[in-house]
Amino acid sequence: MIPMTLERIARVVGARLHDVPDPRARVTAPAAADSREVVPGGLFVATAGARADGHDHAAGAVAGGAVAVLASRPVGVPALVVEDVRLAIGLLAGHLLEHIGPTVIGLTGSVGKTTTKDLLAQVLERHAATVATDRSFNNELGLPLTVLRADAGTRYLVLEMGAGRKGDLTYLTGIAPPRIGLVLNVGTAHVERMGTGPADVAEAKGELVEALPADGFALLNADDPYVMGMAGRTGARILSFGRSARAQVRAEAVRTIGRAHPAFELVTPSGRAPVELGLIGEHQVGNALAAAAVATALGLGVTEIADGLTAARRRSAGRLEIVERPDGVTVVDDAYNASPESMRAGLRAAKALAGTRRTVAVLGAMGQQAEASRARHAEIGRLVADLGFDVLIAVGAGDPLATAEAARSSGRDVAVHTAEDVAGALALATALLEPGDVVFVKASSEIGLGACARALARA
């Protein structure tokens, strides 16, 4: 964040100052939408959510060091009052970018965004000052908050861009116009909001490449025909990545080493170099190639990219997060979110990690799957059985029961249990786990199975 006075911020966002003793007081630190994350000199962004209203925490945020509150009504402490807080924070972020001018990298996709963002940030940080999206703060509030962490010394700004519906990426790229746009894949996440199938998802995701300038780069997944179909929607230069032999940035000699860690030969237009990832699951190769494609477009050499990928580690919680318990139980927490694609990848990664050890899957619902939801949950049940999981705990009523029934009727030797809720799942898993087991936990974030995974990890 570059220092700004409250009166300057008010002009930028069209705010009225309330209870502000000194309009020349300066905001010198980033903004935060959680009062617990406010730092001295920062700006507290008060929004009303389903569970809490930030306006109720305004006084605490100022007591914690916030210079003022961006709010939709007076709050009894220094405040910049606007009609629409989310619109205002976007205007402020755009104003900041006009003054500091980093290279903006936008990335989107149905699955893998956060892991790819974390890998890319770790590669670029070795090269120059980099700011990247925290956790999965990738919407109309989270993206501006990320932008406001940048300052005059920031060279690369890596922005995860989420799209729950058509038009979202057009809005986000309007706040932070990217020079480089990366599209990972087109899957079924959010299909319920976007239309009826992958073509509708592709239409929404392609808004990112439409926003690119002619001298920018569109980085497209050569293994995904829906993504490659976006090439005609941009005037930017195209750089492809993937496992395909036709990809310009690709992986050769892919294998698994150690505890399910992928290794491969990275091939780019500038040469080749070996990579050994510190993440688990062969699907991580695609995420690493996406990060490598961005770094290639930025001019980094293949050895520098490969070294950065090899040194990178998991940064975001709830994504194949591994905890080893004293009794030998390994908890694999992948419960941040779930779609059929990520569920399949996570199950395979956990099974590869387990080897010959006993495996338990604790699975909840995958949200926003539209009319195909029950069939997709049944597919996951069959996969659990086909992969050789020993125990399945299906959590929740409705579609998870289809997961349980498909596994039960598969003819495979899998013990199937059902739980009504997270508490029931925890009780069942606690009773069923044996020393040395590997337990994999995953569901869409609204199910709350992350709490189950964390409790199992502490047991």
From TrEMBL:
Catalytic activity: D-alanyl-D-alanine + UDP-N-acetyl-alpha-D-muramoyl-L-alanyl-gamma-D-glutamyl-meso-2,6-diaminopimelate + ATP = UDP-N-acetyl-alpha-D-muramoyl-L-alanyl-gamma-D-glutamyl-meso-2,6-diaminopimeloyl-D-alanyl-D-alanine + ADP + phosphate + H(+)
Major location (coarse): cytoplasm
UniProt EC number: 6.3.2.10
Compartment(s): Cytoplasm
The entry's keywords: ATP-binding, Cell cycle, Cell division, Cell shape, Cell wall biogenesis/degradation, Cytoplasm, Ligase, Nucleotide-binding, Peptidoglycan synthesis
Stretches assigned to the Mur ligase N-terminal catalytic domain: 33-75
Molecular function per GO: ligase activity
Record-annotated Mur ligase C-terminal domain positions: 318-444
Pfam family, one: Mur_ligase
Pathway(s) of this molecule: Cell wall biogenesis; peptidoglycan biosynthesis
Binding site for ATP: G109, S110, V111, G112, K113, T114, T115
Mur ligase central domain ranges (all copies): 108-295
Function: Involved in cell wall formation. Catalyzes the final step in the synthesis of UDP-N-acetylmuramoyl-pentapeptide, the precursor of murein.
Family statement: Belongs to the MurCDEF family. MurF subfamily.
Protein name: UDP-N-acetylmuramoyl-tripeptide--D-alanyl-D-alanine ligase
Organism of origin: Streptosporangium longisporum
Name of the gene: murF
